[in-house]
Amino acid sequence: MNGTITFLKSFVKDKDVASITPSSKYCVRKLCEHIDFASTNVIVEYGGGTGVFTKEFLKKMRPDAKLFVFETNDNFYKKLNAIDDERLTVFHKTVEDILNLLPEDLLGSVDHVVSGIPFSFFDWNMKIDILTKTKAVLRPQGSFLAYQTSGHLKEPLTESFGNYTTEFCWKNIPPYFIYDAVNNG
Predict the structure, then answer these.
(1) φ, ψ for residue 150 (rounded to 5)?
(2) DSSP-assigned letters across all residues of 36-48
(3) What percentage of the chain's residues is helix, strand, coil (to nearest 5)?
(4) Which of 83, 101, 110, 182 is deepest in the core (most CB within 10 A)?
(5) How far is the first Cα of the chain from the last one, in angstroms, to the nearest whole number?
C-alpha cells in the first residue's frame, strides 16, 4: 500500500509519471517470463518507480549479476536507493545519459533493458534517440522489454530494432502492452 500512496502522490505532482499505481504482480511475472535469469549478467531498468520490478529482478538474479536503474522522480529515487543490495546501482538521471553513466565495459554487453518510462509522452526524435542508445548498450541478441499503455512503440521499434513482438497484459491498472525487441545487430 505504501508504494501505491507514493505513486499517487507522484502522479499528481510529477508530469512524467504516467500511472496512478505500481505495476501488478501479474504484469511483473509476465514480463519476467521474457528473461532467462540463469544466463543474465546485466539488466538495465528505465523508470524503476517504487521498485516492484527492481525487487523481483533482484530476487531472481544470480549473485554475480548487476542491475542498473534510472529514475528521475525524487520520491521513487529515494525508495529505490534505500534497497540494500550490492548488485544494484540507482542513477538519479534520465535514460538519455545512459551511454555516459553505464560502466564503459558494459556498453554493448547488457542482456536486457526493461522500460516503464512513458514513451507516449515523448516526441518521435526523443523516442528514436532513447531506442538507439538502448540498442547500443545491448549485447547481440539482447532484448529491450517495455511495458506501455498503448501501441505507440510499434513504429519506433520497427525503425530502431527492425523487430518486436507484443503481448497484452490486462491484469494491470492500466492494462499494458509488453513489447519485446531483440538486438539483431
Answers:
(1) -150, -175
(2) -GGG--EEEEE--
(3) 40, 25, 35
(4) 110
(5) 42
Q: List pLDDT tens digits, range 4-58.
A: 444 344 444 444 444 446 679 989 999 999 999 999 999 999 999 999 999 999 9
pLDDT tens profile 120-154: 989 999 999 999 999 999 999 999 999 998 888 99
Q: What would the grid cell of residue 91 be? A: 542513477
Query: Which pTM does this prediction carry?
Result: 0.88
| Sheet with 176-182, edge to edge strand ranges | 88-91, 66-70, 42-46, 110-115, 138-148, 176-182, 165-169
C-alpha cell at 56: 523481483
**Which three three-digit cell numbers place residue 2?**
505504501
Residues contacting residue 55 through CB under 8 Å, at least 6 positions apart: 83
**Between vectors from CA 96 to CA 90 and to CA 101, what angle results, nearest 5°?**
45
Under a CB-based contact definition with an 8 Å cutoff, are residues 149 and 117 in contact? no
CB atoms within 10 A of CB 123: 8
Residues 6+ positions from 81 with CB-CB distance below 8 Å: 90, 92
What does the block give as the cell for 132?
538507439
Give the cell for residue 164.
Answer: 518486436
> What does the pLDDT look like over 96-109, one tens digit per residue?
999 999 999 999 99
